[in-house]
Amino acid sequence: MILDAIQAMLLSGIVASAFLAMRKRDLIKSVIYLAVMSMLLSLEFYMLRAPDVAIAEAAIGAGLATAVYIVAINRTERWEDGRGG
Predict the structure, then answer these.
(1) What does the domain layout of the chain look like in residue ranges?
(2) pLDDT cut 90: percent of the chain above it
């Protein structure tokens, strides 16, 4: 019973963070929300008794992909700053 409630909260958090990642105009904030979504997804995988998938999702999805996105965003011009054109 309590595990069902925890899974419902995790799934709601996954959907909410994915929605917020799409709605934010600032790309860095969107990447942070994607990292949160990935961490919640890895927790969900762990609760579904797939610890190997959970570790891979946490390492690649939340760690490596977030770092690559942030480096890529920082190397491009940001139109939000008013400098790009």
Answers:
(1) 2-77
(2) 84
